[in-house]
Specification:
406 residues; alpha+beta; Double Stranded RNA Binding Domain; three-stranded antiparallel beta sheet; 48% helix; disordered C terminus
């Protein structure tokens, strides 16, 4: 006798004990007093009677239970215990899940990125969840082939964000190397993709010019935990927006904290230049003065504590990268573009005031170049207004556009 779907549906539980409805070849339905219905297979293996669970009705149908029975009978015929095989498969799936790309990536993230900037954390997890996990997240990391990763990266490129594709392959490379270190992968496949992605064309120096992005950048700089000298240089950079080489080679003898001015020769044109210093800029310089004023440079190289050499041209850039800002987002030179854009479009200062302060060549109506003291009083006001505005962005103030000043 065999059972049918109609028989199973009509079967009612008995209040005192479970009972069985037999099918054939050892398959039966166990009905518990609580109404639960379980498919079971009774079989003999190595001279012992055993029971194999095949599923719960109605999640497992009668047809599916019979298919599982036949699979089990084939295993028995091949000398394999169905129960032991079931345990092995379950264990294998659990191991695959523990070694999946997503599990390894999230573990790497928790161990290596939680002390990074919020900006860096959010951008990294966004790349994972949007572009990598949907396609490779469930796959064991040691089984991912270069062509599979390339397919995911090409989807990013098709959206027109080639820089993000390059960033994604760098992040994935770190995950693969972490997997190697923890015994879950044998090699990093990302070097195999070298030359496969479209090269990103170089353009202007990247810069944040949206006020809300500037506020986030300034907050991240203030929370930087690396070198205090490098941090001070990065804090001063947006306040003075000079060329990076001029900032790192700033000399104490050229700075007058009482008159709030920094006077030096512009490296590009070898002409005199004056940078009015806001109270915020003076405060930064006063804080670092006890540490570096014994030497020539305001920001000396870490390798020459006596101050005979200026900070490396890579020091500030490397700090920005460690904070999570990529070259496509922000450069040290980008502080100049940031100031030029916002001073004009948001704060409304006269373009010639801004150009003077950027140490660009500005000529009078007769075609003659203005001297370095041109509009110095107005530039002092502009630099203080700029510093106060940056403080307001750091504090999350609402952006308000001003009328032209001049």
């Amino acid at each position: 006798m065999t059972i049918s779907d109609a028989t199973i549906k009509a079967a009612k539980p008995k209040p005192d004990k479970p009972y069985k409805l037999s099918d054939e070849k050892g398959l039966y339905l166990l009905i518990n007093p609580n109404g639960a219905k379980y498919f079971r297979l009774k079989y003999r293996f190595a001279g012992k009677e055993k029971i194999l669970a095949l599923g719960v009705y109605p999640e497992t149908t009668l047809k599916q239970a019979r298919e599982k029975r036949e699979t089990a009978r084939k295993l028995i015929a091949d000398g394999i215990d169905p129960n032991e095989n079931k345990k092995a498969v379950k264990s294998s799936k659990a191991e695959s899940a523990l070694n999946s790309f997503e599990v390894v990536a999230r573990e790497w993230y928790e161990r290596h990125l939680t002390d990074k900037s919020e900006h860096h954390q959010k951008r990294t997890i966004r790349i994972f969840t949007k572009d990598i996990f949907p396609y490779l997240g469930a796959k064991p990391i040691n089984e991912i082939r270069p062509v599979e990763l390339l397919e995911a990266l090409r989807r990013i490129e098709k959206r027109g964000v080639g820089e993000s594709a390059h960033r994604a392959v760098q992040i994935c490379g770190q995950v693969f190397r972490y997997a190697i270190a923890t015994g879950r992968a044998e090699r990093d496949i990302t070097p195999d993709l070298r030359g496969s992605l479209t090269q990103v064309k170089a353009g202007h120096f990247a810069a944040f010019t949206e006020p809300k992005d500037v506020g986030q950048l300034l907050r991240v700089i203030d929370s930087y935990t690396g070198s205090f000298i490098v941090k001070s240089a990065l804090q001063l950079a947006p306040l003075v927006f000079v060329r990076p080489s001029e900032l790192r080679q700033a000399e104490w003898e050229h700075i007058d904290l009482e008159s709030k001015e920094w006077r030096y020769l512009v490296t590009k044109t070898k002409t005199p230049h004056i940078v009015p210093l806001s109270t915020q800029a003076v405060s930064i310089l006063q804080a670092i003065k006890p540490l570096t004023s014994h030497g020539r440079y305001v920001f000396p190289s870490a390798r020459t504590p006596n101050g005979t050499r200026a900070m490396s041209d890579m020091a500030m850039l490397a700090a920005l990268r460690r904070m999570g800002f990529e070259k496509s987002e922000m450069t040290v030179h980008g502080f100049r573009a940031m100031a030029r854009t916002i001073l004009d479009e948001v704060l409304g200062f006269r373009p010639d005031f801004i150009e003077h302060q950027l140490a660009h060549a500005v000529k009078d109506p007769n075609g003659r170049a203005y001297n370095r003291t041109a509009h110095i009083k107005e530039r002092h006001k502009m630099m203080q207004t700029w510093a106060d505005y940056l403080d307001s962005l750091k504090n999350g103030a609402q952006v308000i556009e001003f009328k032209k000043i001049g």
